[in-house]
Amino acid sequence: MEEASGDTASQLFGKFVAFLRKCLFCILSVGPIPTHIAFIMDGNRRYAKKQHLDGGAGHKIGFLALMSMLKYCYELGVRYVTIYAFSIENFKRSPEEVQSLMDLMQEKIEGLIEKESIVNRYGVRVYFIGNLKLLTEPVRLAADRAMLATAKNSKAVLSICVAYTSTNEIVHGVQKACEEKYDEIRVLNASRTGYGLIELGGSEQDEREQLIKLTDIEKNMYMAFAPEPDIIIRTSGETRLSNFLLWQSAHCYLYSPSVLWPEFGFWHFLWAILTFQRNQFYMDKIKKQS
């Protein structure tokens, strides 16, 4: 009987907290709501050390913090969320730690496609971004299944950057743009329609200047489907981007709370949104000038 009463009280408290959160989000909605928030989830290992836990426990607790952040974002109306889950540089860690992270990643990815998962509750489409061939086969296959299973979700988007660095993304975009342009020239030359090249009166210098345009590269970036982030949040007080979304972050707001990622909670999130709203006019002015 006492246990049942405790469960009822817990449910009532949970409903009250959800109602309070909804009221606060309604107030926030008076101001501009970011379309895209990106997270650098820094501090999982330091949190585990601080709490005298084994290293893997820090990442597991960090995953719970991530689930809370996704819920807050989608309840507020943020359409795009991007997380920096695993850098290419992280493969330089010890083989035991890398394998442990791969195992944890596979477990959590498979959980995303469960019927009652957060992505299905909020209608979220999942993308895995990065050089995915570097992942272990079980993780890569799990990622493919998750992307396929959520392909019809259309209310929001979750981008998970794994085996990712921004420099790798930029190189990939340039390579793909060059390959496309080469194929286009080859087809035109084969059909003898030309390419507006020297024979049509242009100079060789004009050709080089116009061959690859900015839009050619941008459409071939891993993150081409998403707008530029409005906010990048990096926990643990670090102000480095660590090779994350360098191409896309020229005009976004950076927020670097001192708490470690597993400690990042609702009030930190609320403050990030309020600070973004306070600076939005200035950020829009900078974008227009550029």
From TrEMBL:
* Membrane as UniProt keyword: no
User: Which domain of life does the protein's organism represent?
Assistant: Eukaryota
Q: Which NCBIfam families match?
A: uppS
- What keywords were assigned to this record? Transferase
CDD domains assigned to the protein according to its UniProt record, in alphabetical order: Cis_IPPS (cd00475)
Documented EC number(s): 2.5.1.-
Q: Please state what the protein is called.
A: Alkyl transferase
Q: Which family does it belong to?
A: Belongs to the UPP synthase family.
List the GO biological process terms.
Answer: polyprenol biosynthetic process
Task: Give the Pfam families listed for this entry.
Answer: Prenyltransf (PF01255)
Q: What class of enzyme is it?
A: transferase
Q: Which GO terms describe its cellular component?
A: endoplasmic reticulum
A GO molecular function assigned to this protein is: ditrans,polycis-polyprenyl diphosphate synthase [(2E,6E)-farnesyl diphosphate specific] activity
